[in-house]
Structure formats: structure tokens, C-alpha cells
Amino acid sequence: MAELKLTKPLSFWGGLDPGTGRIVDRHHPQYGECVRGRKLCMDRTCGSTSSPGTLVEAIRLGNGPAEIVLREPDMTVLSAVRVAKTLYDVDVEVRIQEDD
To answer: Which residues are catalytic?
Structure first.
């Protein structure tokens, strides 16, 4: 599985296009990269409380990451993958990796 390491926190709301899985925040260092089917490594998210909805929609459409690795627990990610599992029976593994 291909890995995508984000060098800056991402707000899924306005930062990710759920229809394509692409990072659309023009100010993000990984602008244009696609998260679809990849292992997404990031310290944490940032931004709006609407972010879980965007991540869930990307997962529902098959455009979300296959796995997410975080430096610290993040309620945006954890709630989104829980909703995706509950509503759509889609599993996205989330791991917390505090050190390299």
C-alpha cells in the first residue's frame, strides 16, 4: 500500500475533495495528492468540526484512505471512521504511532 505522509495538518472540510480523494487546499504542501487507497500518515487534523463529514463521504465513495496513522488521537478521524463503519460497513484502520 502506498504511503502519503502529510507534513502539515489537514482540514478535511475544504481541504479534501471527497469526490476524488485529492487534497484541494492550495496552501497545503501536499496539494494535488490523492489519499484514495493509501496509508495516510499525519500528526493530526486541523480546522472545522465539519471535517468528519467530508472524510466519511470520501470513504463512502471509495475515495478515502485505506489506513490512517496519527501521532496523537484525533476525534475528527476517529469519529469519521466509526461513522463509516456504522453506516456503510467500511473499515478504515486507524493507528496511533507516537514515535518514528
So the answer is: 48
| Distance in angstroms (rounded) separating the CA atoms of residues 70 and 20 | 22
Give the CATH number for residue 55: 3.50.30.10
* Gap between the Cα atoms of 3 and 66, Å rounded: 10
Backbone angles phi, psi at 66, to 5 degrees: -80, -30
What distance in Å separates the CA atoms of residue 61 and residue 70, rounded to the nearest whole number? 22
- pTM as predicted: 0.93
Domain with 83, as residue range(s), is 3-96
DSSP string, 65-79: -SEEEESS--HHHHH
* Contact residues for 45 (Cβ-Cβ < 8 A; gap 6+): 9, 10, 11, 12, 51, 74, 76, 77
Model confidence over 29-54: pLDDT tens digits?
999 999 999 999 999 999 888 899 99
